[in-house]
Amino acid sequence: MNTMFPYNYPQTPGKTPGDPTSLLPVQTFKTIGDEMTAASVSWKWYAGGLNNAHAGTPDSTYQAHHQAPLFFANYAPGTPGAQHVADESAFLTDLASGNLPAVSFVKNLGANNEHPGYTNLLTGQMYTANLVNQIMMSPVWKDALVMIFYDEAGGHYDHVPPVPVDRWGPSTRVPALIVSPWAQHGVVDHTNYEVVSILSTIEARFGLAPLGSRDAAAAPFYGALNFNQPVAQAMARRPLNIEQAPPPPPKPFSRTGHYPVTELDD
């Protein structure tokens, strides 16, 4: 799905509705969103650039293929499930008004995602730090579990030995950060998790059944938490001091429709 685009609108600029070479047919299998809705667990997906995309003026770094609910029939525009999909700007509005759901997914705009070609590392990290700061300064902080994930690896060092690899995986390890009053202070958790540990953590917290064998076998992120530790220190901690970020870099040459020279004529 990372190389296909959702059939549901809004789509990535330049993609033609119904084009089978670039659009994935609408999906109907059960999702964690379906399970939370059935169990009356409030949730919302905050999508970077969604409002502008709906208005027909998408940001150049809007990423439709990163908006998971848009791949599914239950969350298409005009359906009851569409209420679970909002622009990322609504996250801070909901947080400030006390209307943040029990589970929030924030998929930031490409300009803030640390990815080469969209922005720079510092700009993306400062965006994330600002979100965490806003949560820390809000009433929800005392009960919050913030999980920050990356979809790619970027280094060579790892704190656990490589696991045996078979035909189906596991794949490349990626970083994750846990921020919470209940997070173990200054601890690197050596437990082997996987991406669907996101699902198993939600399922464990709210008593939901696993969607399949994969999340049933995935450890929730409880190894990084200690519910018996005093949280007064975490509650009193001041938010991070964020300095001014540099402007994003210019668009890479390859994203202008041109490509680097590989051969020179005699």
Automatic annotation (TrEMBL):
The keyword Aminoacyl-tRNA synthetase does not apply. Residues 1-14 have a biased composition (Polar residues). Residues 1-20, 241-266 are annotated as: Disordered. Pfam families: Phosphoesterase. Gene3D superfamilies: Alkaline Phosphatase, subunit A. Keywords: Hydrolase. InterPro entries: Alkaline_phosphatase_core_sf, Phosphoesterase. GO terms for molecular function: phosphoric ester hydrolase activity. This is Acid phosphatase.
